[in-house]
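Troubleshooting entry. Yesterday's outputs looked truncated, so today I'm pasting the complete records for two proteins to confirm everything comes through intact. If either block looks cut off, that's the bug. Protein one:
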Amino acid sequence: MTPPPPGTAAPISSHGEADQLIEMLTRQRDLYRSLDGLSGKQQQIVADGQDAQLHGEKSERQVIVDQLTRINQDLAPLRGRMTEIADAASADKKQALRTLVDDVQAMLESIIQRDEEDRQTLEASKAQVGQELAKVKTAPAAINAYKANAYAKSTAMPNSSARFTDSRG
């Protein structure tokens, strides 16, 4: 067997690829677990109406998402060959790969569902605040219209009956 050209890595055997894939999927699963925990925490913050705390939560999540992005980039060359790698692996490694992929998929679906619920809750809250602001904006106009109406009635035509009398009648 000839050595690889200088500057290139030696090809990884299917056995080594399975180990590499298990390691990467394990890291990915662990990050998704962390993200899932933060997603649950975020859902509680949204449910409690503590919107000010969302920024900090989003920052923590972004750190994990950045790490997941790097792992996904590392997984890209192996992703299309997962079945081939799993088929060449031992039964234990094949089962480990299957379990890891299922765990990651289940957590991802849970996170997406929770985030969608949070998004809908926040949109409903935003719409409610918008309606309340619209009421606040129209309140001065209503008060001014009432004042104008009251002033018009108090300065009514001379033939109208008097509303106030003084001590002389």
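Protein two, checking that the full record survives here as well:
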Amino acid sequence: MSTKIQVEWRRRQVFELSSKGLSQVEIARKLQIHESTISRDIDCLKEQSKENIRKYVEERLPEEYEKCLVGLTAIQREAWS
């Protein structure tokens, strides 16, 4: 297995275990990996999450907002009819 695939697998595991409420120490013990590696993985996952949110806000949210406005305008017209 390539290093990149191993890192991606490990980070998925870290994310899953973290979402279940395990501490970094518990995750490190469970995966048998040094705590500093878990800490770096969590930092990387946080950065990826920030980037995903930024992309969503810049690329998807404006369109969704416009769709909502169009829908509300249609509902308002229907209500007044």
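Both blocks look complete. Sanity check on protein two: Residues 35-80 form the longest helix (46 residues).
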